[in-house]
UniProtKB/TrEMBL annotation:
MF terms (GO), sorted A to Z: acyltransferase activity, transferring groups other than amino-acyl groups; beta-N-acetylglucosaminidase activity
Domain N-acetyltransferase stretches: 43-261
Coiled-coil boundaries: none
Domain of life from the UniProt record: Eukaryota
PROSITE patterns, per the entry: GNAT
Organism of derivation: Exophiala oligosperma
GO biological process: glycoprotein metabolic process
InterPro entries documented for this protein: Acyl_CoA_acyltransferase, Glycosyl_Hydrolase_84, GNAT_dom
Entry protein name: N-acetyltransferase domain-containing protein
């Protein structure tokens, strides 16, 4: 898109999504140059729209856990069918985007206010969609252990959405039935956008009747733990790994956090 400029009155007003740089040509005129690179301070939060899909999958791939990124494809491809695509396809009205100010998604929050209802919809709608996409459940004779065959492990999880219900810990669904995933590109992190995204979703979830929200984070991610603690999240108040760690809220490689709304 070519650079262009025009002369306008000094008192003109611009929407925050516009990007302009002004040069004075006297007391009444300015030269306005558009098409400048987007800046983080121009970003804002808005609802998800269908045209965001490709950008959101890109964000997922760029911000995925280190073991997923190290494995490359097909692991990242399968991962997007677990922790990204089902949310904006099945529950788009509680998905929010961090817009760079030029319409491009640079972060997102994928939220579910009622996890049991989401699992029901996932079984009925998303699993048939996954199969139409050419993804099949691992065969019974194939390993589905995370450390042995990661692609198979992800495909196996994909076909067992009941894992989201954490049936061994019924108090989780009873007291904190909402859940969320949040990812933001590195250049837009540490600017307060994550907090604003979570606050926006929590407000909506509370209005829709959720008593609380839960999320899972990598146990080794200390920075994420500090971030969620500042926002009022605490560990799920039970030892989840049969006493192996002795820590509340911890499974093998994850920590489950909860927040009452």
């Amino acid at each position: 898109m070519p650079l262009h400029s025009c002369l306008i009155p000094r008192k003109a007003v611009f929407a925050r999504e516009s990007r302009v740089e002004t040069y004075s040509l006297g007391p009444s005129l300015l030269v306005v140059v558009t098409n400048l690179p987007p800046q983080p301070n121009m970003a804002f939060i808005r609802p998800y729209v269908e045209s965001d899909q490709d950008a959101m999958i890109h964000i997922f791939r760029e911000t995925a856990a280190p073991d997923l990124r190290a494995a490359g494809d097909p692991v990242l491809h399968y991962g997007s069918y677990l922790w990204c695509r089902p949310y904006f396809l099945l529950q788009p009205d509680t998905c929010y985007v961090l817009d760079d100010g030029d319409g491009r998604a640079v972060g997102y929050l994928l939220g579910i206010c009622d996890t049991p209802s989401f699992v029901h919809k996932y079984r009925a709608v998303f699993i048939p969609y996954v199969q139409l996409e050419g993804i099949e459940k691992p065969r019974p004779d194939e390993s589905v252990r995370w450390n042995e065959n990661l692609p198979n492990a992800l495909r196996n999880i994909m076909f067992h959405p009941e894992g989201m219900l954490h049936e061994d810990w019924p108090e989780l669904m009873k007291s904190w039935p909402a859940h969320l995933h949040i990812d933001i590109l590195p250049e837009y992190q540490r600017r307060g956008f994550g907090q604003r995204l979570i606050e926006r979703f929590c407000e909506v979830a509370k209005k829709q009747g959720a008593k609380g929200v839960h999320l899972g984070m990598a146990a080794a991610n200390d920075d994420a733990g500090k971030f969620y603690t500042r926002l009022g999240f605490t560990r799920f108040p039970a030892v989840l790994d049969h006493g192996a760690s002795g820590e509340q809220g911890r499974t093998e490689g994850a920590i489950w956090l909860v927040k009452t709304l």
